[in-house]
């Protein structure tokens, strides 16, 4: 059975990136869309990134256009929108499908490891979040409505920090 670290992804700038580069880190993996009503969460995700990256957190954004075409641009346009409109500096990856037969293998793995509401494997909407511990185990799946601020205590616990939230 594969582990999370066996997958390869492509950065938003087109470079190959093995997930094994994140081994030993706590990861928050999020499917994003800049035109989504949940796009204000970019700011909260960026705050988590800046606050905890030195303690071992990696926030990883995977743009997807599968939900009402809310990520219509190409990778360069997505990167620009994330940087200019939302101040994103955490790693972004090339646009992918998160559902269906064309779903990226990473997302096929994530959804098979941690199912959603009523045991569903499919991603319901943009900004679904997967929290991964330092060993590569998916420990929790968060709904799009779960804000970065609501997730912070879970991150702190996995990072071995005293929870402040």
Automatic annotation (TrEMBL):
<dbReference type="InterPro" id="IPR013766">
    <property type="entry name" value="Thioredoxin_domain"/>
</dbReference>
<dbReference type="InterPro" id="IPR036249">
    <property type="entry name" value="Thioredoxin-like_sf"/>
</dbReference>
<dbReference type="InterPro" id="IPR029759">
    <property type="entry name" value="GPX_AS"/>
</dbReference>
<keyword id="KW-0560">Oxidoreductase</keyword>
<dbReference type="GO" id="GO:0004601">
    <property type="term" value="F:peroxidase activity"/>
</dbReference>
<protein>
    <recommendedName>
        <fullName>Glutathione peroxidase</fullName>
    </recommendedName>
</protein>
<dbReference type="GO" id="GO:0034599">
    <property type="term" value="P:cellular response to oxidative stress"/>
</dbReference>
<comment type="similarity">
    <text>Belongs to the glutathione peroxidase family.</text>
</comment>
<keyword id="KW-0575">Peroxidase</keyword>
<dbReference type="Pfam" id="PF00255">
    <property type="entry name" value="GSHPx"/>
</dbReference>
<feature type="domain" description="Thioredoxin">
    <location>
        <begin position="1"/>
        <end position="160"/>
    </location>
</feature>
<dbReference type="InterPro" id="IPR029760">
    <property type="entry name" value="GPX_CS"/>
</dbReference>
<dbReference type="InterPro" id="IPR000889">
    <property type="entry name" value="Glutathione_peroxidase"/>
</dbReference>
<feature type="active site">
    <location>
        <position position="36"/>
    </location>
</feature>
């Amino acid at each position: 059975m594969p582990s999370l670290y066996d997958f390869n992804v492509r950065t938003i700038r087109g470079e190959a990136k093995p997930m094994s580069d994140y081994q030993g880190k706590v990861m928050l993996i999020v499917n994003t869309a800049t035109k989504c009503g949940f796009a204000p969460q970019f700011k909260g995700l960026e705050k988590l990134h800046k606050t905890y990256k030195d303690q071992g957190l990696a926030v990883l954004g995977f743009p997807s256009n599968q939900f009402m075409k809310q990520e219509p641009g190409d990778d360069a346009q997505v990167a620009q929108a994330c940087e200019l409109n939302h101040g994103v500096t955490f790693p972004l990856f090339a646009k992918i499908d998160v559902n269906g037969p064309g779903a990226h293998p990473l997302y096929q793995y994530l959804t098979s490891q941690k199912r959603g509401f009523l045991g569903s494997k499919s991603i319901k909407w943009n900004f679904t979040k997967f929290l991964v511990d330092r060993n590569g185990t998916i420990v929790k799946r968060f709904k799009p409505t779960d804000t970065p601020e609501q997730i912070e205590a879970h991150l702190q616990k996995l990072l071995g920090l005293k929870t402040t939230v």
